[in-house]
Amino acid sequence: MRILFWGTPDFAVPPLRALLGEGHDVVGVVTQPDKPRGRSRTQLDPSPVKVVALQEGLPVLQPLKPRGDEFLQQMRELAPDISVVVAYGHILPKAVIDLPPHGTLNIHASLLPELRGAAPIQASLLQGMPETGVTIMQMVPALDAGDMLHVLRTPIGPETTYGELHDQLAEMGALAIVQALTLIEAGVSRPVPQDDARSTYAPKIDRSMARLDFTQSATEVSRVSRAFDPRPGAFATISGVEVKCFGARVIGRGTDADLDEPALASPPGTVRSADDQGLVVRCAEGAVRFMDVQPSGKARMTAAAWARGRGVQVGQQFDAPAPPLP
Questions:
Q1: In a domain? residue 314
Q2: CB–CB of 96/70 below 8 Å?
Q3: b vs e for 297-321, b when ≥16 Cβ sit within 10 Å of the residue's Cβ?
Q4: Are residues 242 and 131 part of one domain?
Q5: How far apart are CA 197 and CA 302, in angstroms?
Q6: 317 near 306, Cβ under 8 Å?
Q7: From the CB of residue 230, how many other CB atoms can be counted at a distance below 10 Å?
Q8: CA dist 184 to 29, 167, 188, Å?
Q9: What is the DSSP string of 121-170?
Q10: Using one digit for the tens of pLDDT, what is the confidence trace for 252-289?
Q11: How many domains would you assign to the chain?
């Protein structure tokens, strides 16, 4: 089949490379317009998907929005049998979804119908899910609601970070889309409708979600840190300085039973130690250890290096988050 591939960030690169590597006929790529950068905003950076497409000599379409007669005509000229979409960045209108004879497939980084929406990888970590995966679904205008064609699952470890899970799911998405297309071409694919009553939503990430709150349990603090590691980085402030915290490890089972008497007497947010073993911070229940930090305006460093530079001392207390606006 002739495939029109849609994608923008690095998450979409493994599926594109897999389709090309398996000999599929990728007739073109649709990706977001190049992004300006620098103070002058005159230098344009292509998306990771565009870089691969140009290397492979594929036609590239970069509409501001994927709609309108002109864009539909460009699609018709490429004559795709099917579209494959992964992290493209725009909602597609029905006319675009339905233009290829075999419709449009989407690679979604969750076990649908759970975690429909923009940020399913982060949400799986924030919610402490024991497993996640990728779902290949038939795209429809409703958000991530189409019939499921193929699912791959993977467990989430207690110390798994967003970066690690992102890369793992990108590779799983590559495998899953190749397998799904094989089933379709063999005529044995069996779409399974989603149970809308079981659907949950993974909203777009905003800055407030990455704020560490040590009045929560160590388990909850660890989840927030890992959900934004390495980017954009979960943060807290200490003495008015914003500090991103990485490499979260729950102390013991994450309960007060794992703490000594001085730690138990410390209020949430208190630094209990800062050395080669990491930065240990008291939480409402238990304590959490961070291996790396990044104070505002500085590079990422070990907790020990931060302590040696007198950036933090035992007994200091992280600032409490500001209450939400009414």
A1: no
A2: no
A3: eeeebbbbbbbeeebbeeeebbeeb
A4: no
A5: 45
A6: no
A7: 16
A8: 21, 26, 6
A9: HHHHHHTT-SEEEEEEEE--SSTT-SPEEEEEEEE--TT--HHHHHHHHH
A10: 999 999 888 888 999 999 999 999 999 999 999 999 99
A11: 2
Return the CATH number at 217: 3.10.25.10
Check pLDDT > 60 for residue 325. Answer: no
Side chain identity, residue 71 = F
Token look-up 């029905």 returns 94
d(CA 87, CA 209): 21
Q: Hey, what are 122's tokens? A: 């982060």
**Nearest alpha-carbon partner for 199 in 122, 91, 89, 111:** 111
213-224 confidence digits (pLDDT tens): 999 999 999 999
d(Cα 37, Cα 31) in Å, to the nearest integer?
18
State the pLDDT at residue 238.
96
